[in-house]
Design brief:
two-stranded parallel sheet; 4 strands; 5 helices; mainly alpha
Amino acid sequence: MPIVEPEVLMDGDHTIERSAEITEAVLHEVFHALHRHRVVLEHILLKPSMVLAGSKNARQSSTADIAAYTLRILKRTVPSAVPGIVFLSGGQSPDRSDRQSRRDESPRTAALEPELLVWAHAAGAALASMERSAAGNVKEAQQALLKRARLNSAAALGNYDAAQENS
């Protein structure tokens, strides 16, 4: 299954409004290109970045703003034939991306069918785990990956609490 991964980087001091503008333009171009190349949209997964202010912007985006902007852009640009949308952390720390993706705050709660939106933040933890295992700490790496997977699951169900990071 092809995974289409357009990403607007969070590096910089851009506002969430600018990020939304660029993300919308990028997604329009992506779907035009997929159409030109006769890609069957029912056979892809879309893996976009969340819409948020740049990491150097003094006014960081709230979870509610990220959900609202992200959902609005997805509704404007993603054809209904696309069977799934998978978000990765986009450079955010694992705990921040889990906070952003709480089910009660995320685009999952909106009018798009909930099963179409999937939040998958374990990739960063998996990479960190692989790095640790390369150093011979396989058990520690496995525990770190398991912890992040549990926290991702809690976030998807609306049960994430930052205090769980320390347990």
